[in-house]
Amino acid sequence: MIATESLSKRYPRVTALDRLSVDVTPGVTGLVGANGAGKSTLIKILLGLSPATEGRAAVLGLDVATEGQQIRSLVGYMPEHDCLPPDVSATEFVVHMARMSGLPPTAARERTADTLRHVGLYEERYRPMGGYSTGMKQRVKLAQALVHDPKLVLLDEPTNGLDPAGRDEMLGLIRRVHTDFGISVLVTSHLLGELERTSDQIVVIDGGKLLRASSTSDFTQATASLAVEVTDRESELLGLLTGAGLTAQASGHLLLVDIAGDDTYDTVRDAVAGLGVGLVRMEQRRHRIAELFIDEDTTPTREDAPSKEGDGRDAA
Amino acid sequence: MTQPDVAAPGGPAGPAAGAAAGSPPDVIHNIGYRNYTGPRLGRGYARTALFSQSLRGAYGLGRSAKSKVLPMILLGAMCAPALIMVAVTIFANRPDLPVAYTRYAVVLQAVITLFVAAQAPQSVSRDLRFKTTPLYFSRPIERVDYVAAKYAALTVALFLLTAIPLVILYVGALLAKLSFAHQTAGFAKGLVSVLLLSVLFAGIGLVIAAITPRRGFGVAAVIALFVISYAAVSAVQGVADSQEKYHVIGWLGLFSPITLIDGFQTWFLGARSAFPDAAGPANAGIGMLYLLVLLAVIAGTFGLLMNRYRKVGLS
Fold it and tell me: Where are the compositionally biased (Low complexity) regions (chain B) (predicted)?
């Protein structure tokens, strides 16, 4: 789908991308990085809108430097920021964007009705978009990226500004874009936790450099673990849990217990109750992914934030 | 192509909506996704789509009723004097129209200025303000297509505004049985004049409007530029006139948009100048200079717009 080869983008003061070589296969790919890691720069280059300083990139086998127009007619783009005029209805707007993508008038109207329905916008679509909720606006933004039935969509931070329920719906929709519509997806986020549930493949970049690219199953090969915090007697609890056949380890005040199955939660609960101590919290963690930021990075302070947020999302 | 959701009673039959008899509640999700296999018409078509959307937008078509009010009032204000003149000509049996075709736009320049001031920001500032421009550039068009489509759309909108009253005058003149040859020649010259005026005004208006995403600022800046430059040129021309330096009057016309058009049509279209004492360009050299300045300003505004959108890009 996408192949870059030592792709670099340097501005006078900053290096936005530094010899990035990635291969993105069909499916849903999560592009993870902190703000300023180079995600948006990469998208601009992939759409053929900003020339790379060096290196090459191809999208759908088309060279971004010379075949930008063909790429843009076969790729959809959903920007991170607001992009909807408030005094126009979703239908009119998406029809116009469909025509801008080269669809004849009748096809543009039919595809608009279909696409808005698929993203879950019904009779609201005839009302001016100024009155829409954030969730509805995100759906329209997704619809305008899908309306011309692209082979690939680039979604820049599609869950930005959504509440937890809205995030889950949007992530489910993104999953369906691939499974039901057969469209490959490149989705960016600074939250690794939400992308690992949606993506088949994850690419992590930081400071314009590739940190890691592999399939999601490699990322989460270690089973998810449970962080348990109790008021007292951690070591006795550890002993009880190990005795019950669970793999557990102490990490400061926390006990990290590998989740073997649904009954793991019951075992932990019963053990805590048996000791008669208070259970402060019990939350799911994908520790391997959190470690990814800490293990492999040279500037741990900058990476702390996303990994913490990632954990927070898992718990939610 | 029938849409199954239309058939579902109660409108938006989401999964939560009650199941009507015979239609399961999740009927919408059963339709499935259909791939698009039809033609993709590419760059030229997209440019035309942007042009027609922008042209319609200049008259508020395809937008809210509120946004139709101002352009329609201005179009009415442009046409009403023409209708009155035609009526006077017919019923008073006058030998000619009270105002020449080439003079009409100069007389009603305030209305044209207001139209540019209102609709140039409408055309480009909105895209900047609501950040719709990145969506356009993610489509199979290039920067030049966006600029050309917007430029052409406002030019045609202005041409309609200025040419429709001329058509009214011409038809009226023929109904009043004025000299056909004389009227046709005047009408043709008038069309050439308002076409150039439309291109010039559209370019200047768009350049100013594209600087700022704030529409109100754009409106004020466009009005200020047209009004102040015209007032300044007229004032200095008045001074030159009172000092009987008629050749200076011709030079001064180069410095405001409407007097540029006036000077051009005085020399090239044989129009009677609206300058003091009808003192247009004094000789062929200055007449040619008017043409060169006119073309340079038009090319310059296009270049500035291209430069402006070089930076806008995606975000």
Answer: 7-21
Nearest chain B residue to A130 by CA: give it: B130
Residue A290, pLDDT above cutoff 70: no
Q: Do B134 and A111 touch (CB under 8 A)?
A: no
Residue B8 or residue A28, greater confidence: A28
> How many domains are there within chain B?
1
Task: Report pTM.
Answer: 0.81
DSSP string, A66-124: T-HHHHHHHEEEE-SS----TTSBHHHHHHHHHHHTT--HHHHHHHHHHHHHHTT--GG
Pairing of strands A279-285, A225-230: antiparallel
Where chain B has pLDDT below 50, the residues are 1-24, 315
Cβ within 8 Å of A, B 15-34: 28, 31-34
Sequence spans of domains, chain A: 2-215, 225-285
**Does residue B121 sit within a domain?**
yes
Compute φ and ψ for A281, nearest 5 degrees: -160, 160
- Model ipTM value: 0.83
Q: Do A82 and B40 touch (CB under 8 A)?
A: no
Q: How confident is the model at residue A293 (pLDDT cuts 50, 70, 90)?
A: low
- Cα-based angle A77, A79, A80 (whole degrees, multiple of 5): 145
Collapsing DSSP states into helix, strand and coil, what is residue A20?
strand
Residue B252 domain boundaries? 55-306
Pairing, β A15-20 against β A62-63: unpaired
For residue A60, give how far its alpha carbon lies from the nearest alpha carbon of chain B (Å). Answer: 15
Measure A72 CA to nearest chain B CA, in Å. 5
Would you say the C-alpha torsion B309, B310, B311, B315 has a positive or negative sign?
positive
Determine if residue A61 is left, alpha or beta; phi over 0 gives left, psi from -120 to 50 gives alpha, anything else beta: left
SS3 A128: strand
DSSP B138-174: TSS--HHHHHHHHHHHHHHHHHHHHHHHHHHHHHHHH
Chain B residues near residue A75 by CB distance under 8 angstroms: 138
Could you tell me how far CA A50 lies from the centroid of its own chain?
23
Return the CATH number of A2-215, one of 3.40.50.720, 1.10.472.20, 3.40.50.300, 3.40.50.150. 3.40.50.300
The CATH number given to A225-285 is 3.30.70.980
Q: Smallest CA–CA separation between B140 and chain A, in Å?
A: 5
Asked if the structure places residue B49 within a domain, the reply is no
Range from A19-33, A212-226, A300-314 carrying the lowest mean pLDDT:
A300-314
